Fold this protein.
Amino acid sequence: MTSHLHSLLSLRQQARTIFQAGVAAANPYQAVQRAITVAENHIALQLDVTNPQKIRIGRWTKIHLIALGKAACTMAKAVQDCVPAEWLADTALVITNYENLIDLPPFTVIGAGHPLPDAAGLQAAQQVIAQLKQAQQGELVLVLISGGGSALLPAPVEPVTLAEKMRTTDLLLSSSATITEINCVRKHLSQLKGGHLTRLACPADVHALILSDVLGDDLSTIASGVSVADNSRYSEAIEILIRYAVWDKIPLSVQQVLVEGQAGQRKETPKSVEAFFKHSSHVLIGSNALSVQAAMQSARQEGYQTHLYHAALTGIAREQATHWVQHIKALVPLLKQPTAFIAGGETTVNVTGSGKGGRNQELALAFAIAAKKDKLLNDWVFLSGGTDGKDGETDAAGGLVDSQSIERIKNARFNPTNRLNNNDSYTALNSSGDLLITGATGTNVADLSVLLIYPLK
């Protein structure tokens, strides 16, 4: 029994090590420093992390720094440590969520609401707009973008208020509209989203360093594409609102803006043919895919045979857990050595109960329940966590369960299935010591899941 317990403890630590390797690969500080090279009289900006030879060289007279997102402070610190202070404009704006707030003198650091925008974010957006309008020809606006940037920098067009824009977004979220459809509407109600940031920076040049929290790395979706072109139109936004039967429910100010836009009385979101995009560039410096690769490499270093279970795991968390267990159960007879199955992605939760937890905790608890039900008798450990260190409205990043977790939950006098059905994964995992607690990581590239399993003895 002692050796069995020891092996599970070792597996649990290895799972943590592999997860942390994935998080480290999205380390914003290192990613930014890799993307910027400063010489005596110029600066070289990386354009492709997979091709170091692809760079943009400039001799800008001044660099305006704007950082937004959960990793904004760490990314801004990286710039501060590699770009001479005299090259930077007097005002550098850094906007992040309250949990990741760090003092960075002389930069102006602003904490704002996430995931729900607030008045502080609205004020920060106004400061960003003012800073962009000061940028001149021959200068560079260096934009550091990470997950959460969209909520942190709300800038509704007049006469729409922040509350009215949020009301419109909430209606779409509850109507099963896709993120692309929601973004189409939001971009047409914003002064910054959908490429407006680049438009406002004109005639200055723009370069964006982007840490992606979006599966597939669609640049128009990350922070709602503040620095890249948007080829959707006002008419599409109206069609989406009508299609989901919310047009008559949205505020009149929103209807007014969209109708005026469709009639040509308001400027469209910037399209790719705009001349100022010729002076704009970007580079993807971190993503879920890059973190999955790092986790796979770490698992190999720990001595595991590795398999990519899924590059972009989506769908209902508890359903995906069941599918994963069934997949592994079918492979058990073929396992000849310790094996790691890695997945990236971002599942969802159908909230029908009144409990506490997040998608990663629910995935972990559901995996443990399914493994017990399907008699997965191997020694195994399953970890699922958010790379930002936060899973739902809890202090946990996710869950870390093993083949003994269900027994520990039951010994604590909880029914695992009842807790899952009440969306109360946090209580169940807390009772068994299976919460994954990391604290805020300062980055965000969606979720990572790690299954370590040994062959049957």
